[in-house]
Amino acid sequence: MPATRPPDFEHAIHTTNIWLKAVSEALGTDDRHLAHRVLRAWLHTFRDRLTVDVAAHFAAQLPELLRGVYYDGWSPSAVPIKYDRDGYVNRFVQEAKVKAEDVPQIASAVTSVIREHFSPGTLESALEQLPHDIRGLLLQPAA
What we know:
Layout: H1 7-27, H2 32-47, H3 52-59, H4 64-71, H5 85-96, H6 103-117, H7 122-127, H8 132-139
C-alpha cells in the first residue's frame, strides 16, 4: 500500500521548499541546510525582538511549516528581548552557525526574500519595532 499524504500537507511542504529555494538563491548557494539554518535564525532573532501582538501578526504571513519553525522555542512572556546590533549578530551566529562578518549579507538577503513573499507593508510594520541599528542591518543593500 503506497504511503500518501493529505494534499494540504503536500502544499505546506511545497511552499516551504519555495521559500528555502529563494533563500538559497539569495545566498548564492545550493546548500539547503544552510538556507534552513539562516532562515530559522532570522525568524527567531526577529521574533524575539517584537511584542507578542506584532510577532503573531507577522507569523500569520508565514507558510504553515515555517510558522512552526518561527514559534519553536518561543516564550511569549519573555519578549521583547532587548538587544542591540551586536546582540543580534551574536544570537544569529550561534543559531545559524555562520561567521559574524557574514551576518549582514545573510540577514539582508533573508529580509529580501521575506519581503518578496509577504503582503505589502507587513514586514515594514514589524520592522518599525526594531532599533535603528538592527533595522539597518536587516535592510542594508545586497553586496
